[in-house]
Amino acid sequence: MFLFVLFISIFFTPFCLSVNRNDAPIIGVLAQELRSSRTSQRAYIAASYVKFLEAAGARVVPVMINQAPEEYKKLFNSINGILLPGGGVNITSSGYERAAKFFYELAIEANKREDYFPVWGTCLGFEQLIYLTSGKNLLTNTETSGLALPLNFTKEAKTSRIFQAFPAELMADLSSEPLTVNSHNWSLAVLTYNKNDELRKFYKVVSTNTDGNVEFVSTMEAYDYPIYGTQWHPEKNAFEWSRPYNPHSPSAIRTTFYMAEFLVSEARKNFHTFESKEEESKALIYNYNPIYTGTTGYFEQMYIF
Ligand SMILES: *[C@@H]1O[C@H](CO)[C@@H](O)[C@H](O)[C@H]1NC(C)=O
Ligand SMILES: *[C@@H]1O[C@H](CO)[C@@H](O)[C@H](O)[C@H]1NC(C)=O
Ligand SMILES: *[C@@H]1O[C@H](CO)[C@@H](O)[C@H](O)[C@H]1NC(C)=O
Predict the structure, then answer these.
(1) Looking only at Cα atoms, what is the longest distance across the chain?
(2) Residue 118 lies in a domain
(3) What tens digit of pLDDT does each residue of 107-134 get?
(4) pTM of the predicted model, to two decimals?
(5) Angle at CA 231, nearest 5°, toward 83 and 102?
(6) Which domain holds residue 209?
(7) Is the CB of 251 under 6 A from ligand 2?
(8) Residue 179: closest CA among 257, 92, 249
(9) What is the CATH number of the domain that holds 92?
(10) Which of 36, 147, 185, when mutated, tests ligand 3's pocket best, judged by the most ligand atoms within 8 Å of its CB?
């Protein structure tokens, strides 16, 4: 029996799975309600998140909103991580929130069983993580809707996982040049974080920023889980052009790449796979075509479902 199992597992192990690294990671990107069409149940993903992950060697599967729990569970066991993108939906009641909660809870359980499953939140996704971890809406209104800022690294940044592989020169640029795009009206104030036990025990604050009045958390990572959040947008520097404050300097572009590189390297530690190659092909984002929305919209290209 043992030999049989060994034979089966050797036979079916694809070439791309080395002993402890998955060189064909597939990351889910969560869709969200299109604001202009609340009644028609349409949803979208900004293409920049897809390009962000693809640039660092991952493939992408869209995670649709309003699916059945069994569907989400099956998908969770097929992908190697999930990205909760920025956007504008309700973080306490929306299809985005319900799906994010489902994957967040499955990820916590999986990681407890040593099934390493990364969860990444960008902007709205960051705010969603704060809500999921604390169970409360703890955000503060800030004047941060549309500007690029340098990061104010905390002392703990030195021991952070996110920035470990960043070149020293890029870290210096990140802390002195406006390379991180902020496009949010709500933030987690450092004062709020300091007063909340759940958040303090769960997340290490890696960087902060201020709007002049409120100091807020801009980068965080969970102490005991591969769960990460940036209030800023690493994907925009290389892939979004519709706003004058999106920085495109060489260091800005490297910031996009190194952030993606980190997240994808986390996903390579997960070994979930689809049940078959056919299931995998059917799920990939390649089945959908992005449309060019940059002339009128906020995003250069969008997938609309
Ligand atoms: C989000 O939804 C909740 C529950 O329906 C509601 O109370 C809250 O006002 C909404 N928040 C926003 C920002 O619309
Ligand atoms: C950086 O953070 C420190 C404390 O965390 C704060 O005292 C300082 O004012 C911040 N600097 C900027 C430019 O935000
Ligand atoms: C912030 O709020 C202002 C005023 O309501 C709005 O015009 C802007 O689009 C909002 N920004 C973001 C990023 O949600």
Answers:
(1) 67
(2) yes
(3) 999 999 999 999 999 999 999 999 999 9
(4) 0.92
(5) 35
(6) 24-304
(7) no
(8) 249
(9) 3.40.50.880
(10) 185
